[in-house]
Specification:
The complex is a heterodimer of chains A (111) and B (113). By secondary structure, chain A is mainly beta. Chain A is 0% helix and 52% strand. Classes of the chains: A mainly beta (111), B mainly beta (113). Chains A and B meet through strand 4, strand 5 and strand 9 of A and strand 10 of B.
Chain lengths: 111, 113
């Protein structure tokens, strides 16, 4: 069974703090996507990483794909209340098959 | 401009009363998906269409059915909703299967009374 383990499941922090969310698997993925979902809305893609060791930055968000393409991390610097939401990682394969979603990390950033 | 549109945003139905959720897309994508999502959990894939080819997930109950009359529209039919079917239902599209990114609609929040 292909699994993506995401941790932590819940995270409540104060505005200005840094945080890291992890996404780990025993499977090798062709790509790893990160989505953010606000309450009452559908997930929105933040980034896709495809190369082992790749690092992508999106303002205060830094995404990294592990060298072996089995894991990924999302680091947020100086979190803001607007970062609050459910963060989902999803692994995919170029040769087809459905995306595999992690369980999600519920982030709450308090002012 | 919304590219994947789901209607209605909120749906209330009675226990056992059939309900249909709708999804339309302006992206002309080949693949359309239906996901069920319960509070603060990952979306769970129910089924998807690749063009007209229907692909059901092994653990999707028979109570859930889907129709795709054309490229743009896809429907989720719940034949006899139970209390456990109350959830957010998300429609998504992609160009092809695999590592393509998904475009999600805003979802339909279903309540079962």
């Amino acid at each position: 069974t292909q699994l993506l383990e995401q941790s932590p499941q819940f995270l409540s922090i104060q505005e200005g703090e840094n945080l890291t969310v992890y996404c780990n698997s025993s499977s090798v993925f062709s790509s790893l996507q990160w989505y953010r979902q606000e309450p009452g809305e559908g997930p929105v893609l933040l980034v896709t990483v495809v190369t082992g060791g790749e690092v992508k930055k999106l303002k205060r968000l830094t995404f990294q794909f592990g060298d072996a393409r089995k894991d990924s991390s999302l680091h947020i610097t100086a979190a803001q209340p607007g970062d609050t939401g459910l963060y989902l990682c999803a692994g995919g394969y170029n040769q087809g098959g459905k995306l595999i979603f992690g369980q999600g990390t519920e982030l709450s950033v308090k002012p | 401009d919304a590219m994947v549109i789901q209607n209605p945003r909120y749906q209330v139905t009675q226990f056992g009363k059939p309900v249909t959720l709708s999804c339309s897309q302006t992206l002309n994508h080949n693949v359309m998906y239906w996901y069920q999502q319960k509070s603060s959990q990952a979306p769970k894939l129910l089924f998807h269409y690749y063009d007209k080819d229907f692909n059901n997930e092994a653990d999707t109950p028979d109570n859930f059915q889907s129709r795709r009359p054309n490229t743009s529209f896809c429907f989720l039919d719940i034949r006899s909703p139970g209390l456990g079917d109350a959830a957010m239902y998300l429609c998504a599209t992609s160009r092809k299967i695999g590592s393509e990114k998904l475009f999600f609609g805003s979802g339909t929040q279903l309540s079962v009374l």
